[in-house]
């Protein structure tokens, strides 16, 4: 390893430029601090639609009494 950082020099360029690093604002571990600029309203709208779709699927599964589908929806919602 060279230098005091202990990392690759090519990774430093990717860390400094989120456009080249293909940063995903909807990644489960992404936080608001990770995003320098962008359309926050669009991001929030997408997240609201995602949550609404999960809620509607879970509501329908509960109404139908389908425990397998309830478990699948719960598993998906926990991974988000």
Walk me through this protein's architecture.
The chain is an all-alpha fold and 80 residues long. The protein has one domain. It has 3 helices and no strands. The longest helix has 25 residues. The protein is elongated, with a radius of gyration of 19 Å. The mean pLDDT is 75.
The counted number of beta strands is 0
- Using the CA coordinates, give the radius of gyration: 19 Å
Structural class: mainly alpha
Question: How many domains in all?
Answer: 1
Strand content: under 5%
Distance between the termini: 36 Å
Helix content: 55-70%
Number of helices, where a helix is a run of at least 4 consecutive DSSP H or I residues? 3
**Rough shape?**
elongated
Mean pLDDT: 75
Largest sheet: none
Low-confidence stretches: none
Helices and strands in order:
Layout: H1 9-16, H2 40-64, H3 67-78
Helix pairs in contact: 2-3
